[in-house]
Amino acid sequence: MSDIIKLLPDSLANQIAAGEVVQRPASVVKELLENSVDAGATEISLIVKEAGKTLIQVTDNGKGMSPNDARMSFERHATSKISRTEDLFNILTKGFRGEALASIAAVAQVEMTTKASDQELGLQLIVEGSQFKSAEPIASLQGTTIKVKNLFFNVPARRNFLKSHAVEMRHISEEFQRVALAHPDIEFHLYHNEVNNYKLTSGKLSKRIVDLFGKNYREQLISCKEETDYFTVTGYIGRPESAKKTRGEQYLFVNQRFIKSPYLHHAILKAYSGLIAEGHHPFYVLYLTIDPKHIDINVHPTKTEIKFDDEKVIYSIMLAAIKQALGQHNIMPSLDFEHGSAPTVNFERFLEENERDEPKTVTRASSFNADTNFRSSTENWQELFEGFGKKPSPSDTQEASLRSFSKGFAWDEDSSQPTEDRSEQSEPQVRTFGSSINSGVEIGDQAEKKNFIQLESGFIATPLKSGLMLVHCKYAQQRILFEKYLKKMESGKGSCQQLLFPESITTNPADAELITEMTPELNAMGFRFEILNSNELVLSGVPPELENANERETFEGLIEQYKYSSGDLDVPMIEKIAQAIAIRSTAKFQKKMNGEEMQAIVDQLFACKNPNFSPQGKPTFKVLATDKITELFG
Q: Distance between the two ends of the chain, CA-based, in angstroms?
């Protein structure tokens, strides 16, 4: 039998190694920026063309390299920070040249110009596909410039897997932001297609955050600092009200290296427990400074995942640090030692605010003992409400039972007794079931106003031959708008209502790239806007359906909702956008409707292609069958 095992050629081995390190243009940006940081640069410029597919250029004013180091940096297994095994557990730098350059040069055309401070001339190296093409002396300033051209030019299959310019540029912006946040003392510039997206001057961390994410973050930042013998935590966290559904604005650094740690993220979320809605994520930029011997950073090729020798201690201190920061800024209830002999939790301010916002309680007739007469119906109503994703309180159950029982009566909120049926009057306090409830009315019939009733909890109740139907107003409206917006985008003929006073909206370069990618679909929906630069756009028109909405909040919420749903790769873009705007348009749907409006909601819902579920898959209506209603009365 002949031998079949053989050594791979260096060029092929480098390409295989590049597959772990160089996944997309953003991977190249990360490695080159980190190299410039380790070179001691105080000013770094990143120039990108066509989202990095054509050119990625990083220029720094660091200490540069000698001619011999410049050549060695493109060799496999060449490094400047490891000479023995113990060095693997004492790494404080990110990697000075070497290591990744060999992988990058294997799949691109690379040109390096470098000059050290003690040299008269610099050196220019050109490498293509791991092959040295030229090495010539050249006049240059101190520092290093690396140009990466035509990424994956010799691996067309890899190049075909790259996404659109907007998507790839979004990833580049994310990597740029991470490095810029890790080093606020360094000046950074980012140019894309000769447009200056970022111009970040050196300064405090708070200034760097505002420069990156916008002026709106200035009022959201809460300082966080905790020092222990084991490690130190510093940075900023966001106020609970600024939490978003989307991830991406959570930055955790260990020894100035960005990492991803679901374990520590859980500790931060736990500190916010009870302050933010479920499924939301707070903003934070936190730095952990720890002795390198307590961590292992070589568990992932990109070094974004690390291991701690004692994760439980890190978790506990992180949790305590975040809670302390929230408490010091009056976000969490404080202990009041002034009232009484023992310390008590001071909820007075929160109770006062809640009492002002509480709706008035409707007094029911004293002849009805809801607790006695309707206790047996609780389980049936709970089952019905849970179908909409909401478990009712006992008061919800009793009120629903009373309303279904009070046929022919209207309840006056100013009285404790039932009054005669006043459905012909226009007082908003009246809630009436018409006497035709026993005859049944099918959907689509010309029903009178008394065949519909709007419950305060956001439901429309209407009788059917088979029982009683409850329609979830918000979910129904979402389904109606979703199919309406989807039809608009498919036809490309969405109407637009011009704003009398155009709205100026502040954004960041990453979102500006995303909006640019979505422009055709947003225009088809009815939005009209102009992107002035990477940090600002002007909204001049909106769909007519948003007549009474806050245009700025709706547009910003649309982008945020789209990013939240963008992880579903099986859903086309137009469906994601239609879903996002439908959900955001009804985010605060609490409209009180008359009979004709309720009839229109029901008719439009059942005219949809899929009336049963909202765009997020939640049921829009439930039917309580007649036999179930009979069981309520034993």
A: 86
Domains, in order of start, for the chain: 10-203 (3.30.565.10), 213-328 (3.30.230.10)
Whole-Å CA distances, 401 to 378, 396, 455, 528: 9, 9, 12, 48
267 vs 264: CA distance, rounded Å: 5
169: left (phi over 0), alpha (psi -120 to 50) or beta: alpha
- pLDDT tens digit sequence for 562-615: 776 655 555 677 888 888 888 877 766 667 788 888 888 899 999 999 899 998
3-state secondary structure at position 467:
strand
**Distance between CA 475 and CA 481 in Å, rounded?**
10
> Do residues 578 and 611 make contact, with C-beta atoms less than 8 angstroms apart?
no
Other beta carbons within 10 angstroms of residue 367's beta carbon come to 8
CA pair distance 137, 537, nearest whole angstrom: 46
Phi-psi region of 617 (alpha: psi -120 to 50; beta: other; left: phi over 0): left
Q: Is 39 helix (H, G, I), strand (E, B) or coil?
A: coil
Q: Which two tokens stand for residue 489?
A: 């985008």
Decide if pLDDT at 494 tops 90: no
Dihedral of CA atoms 52, 54, 60, 62 in degrees, nearest 10, equals: 100
**Amino acid, single-letter form, for residue 493:** K
Return phi, psi of residue 224, to 5°. -135, 130
Q: What average pLDDT does this structure show over 352-372?
A: 41
- 279 DSSP assignment: T
Task: Note the pTM of the prediction, 2 decimals.
Answer: 0.66
Question: Which are the contacts of 229, defined by CB distance < 8 A and separation ≥ 6?
Answer: none
Tell me which residue of 618, 622, 606 sits closest to 468, measured CA to CA.
Answer: 622
